[in-house]
Request: fold
Amino acid sequence: MFIERVKYILAVVIYGTIGLFLRYVSLPSEIVALCRGIIGSGFILLYLRAKRQHINLPAIRQNLFWLAASGICLGLNWIFLFAAYMHTTVAIASLCNYMAPIIIILIAPIVLHEPLDMRKIPCVIAALIGIVLVSGVWGGSVGNIAGIFLGFASASCFVGIVICNRKIHDVPAFDKAAFQLAMSALTILPYVLLKNHGAALEVDLRSVLIILTLGIVHTGIAYCFYFSGLGSLPVQTIAILGYLEPVVSVLCSAFFLREALGITGWIGAVLVLGAAVVSESIKTKEQGH
Reply:
């Protein structure tokens, strides 16, 4: 369980740096998302081939429904989130998207029959307050209603990803990641074709290199770590640690892009990180007994 937790944290931290790389890409975000799915799944398949490992087809067939559903949810999550960015501020869209962990913790006892650890509720509340402070929404406007709706739709799709992955059994992490990323690309493709029909695209070398990095490191490698943890860690641990991603994103903006975080932002970052540490210490104490 410790290794899975470390892998999940690494994946979340890697995801948090995506915004830093996207700042230097000239292509539309939905095309970047499509490329991530294609390159990520292709990279994993090439890696398996180099290691002389074969896809576990019987396991995939046995879990085909939940694998496909998870991949579709992943693609829809990207589509709704990018659309939310177009209709409201990035801060508000991100805040709505990261309501997903709250939803997961609340529905886990009903949908997944996992008991709710009441000691972790204060950690969830602290993390949510921290996200509000980090996002900057605290002193801003409520934004566009359509953007808020799309942000929550993105969060709902993320909840679907978690639920579907809890239903998948005996599928190796690399096989699972390759299939789900390929399915997400198929889900995004119609949206990309519809939105960019007849549009002229400008492609430069820097964008190509960044997209390759996003596809291989931020998708191929990170998703193997991510799905490995997603299928084995308790949903409450996933919920709390998931909040590390936006904090890493904001910290990257502050340190590398020189965007001011502000005192409330720093307080929010400390709250989120503190909630993650306290939540994990509760789990460690349980295991110690």
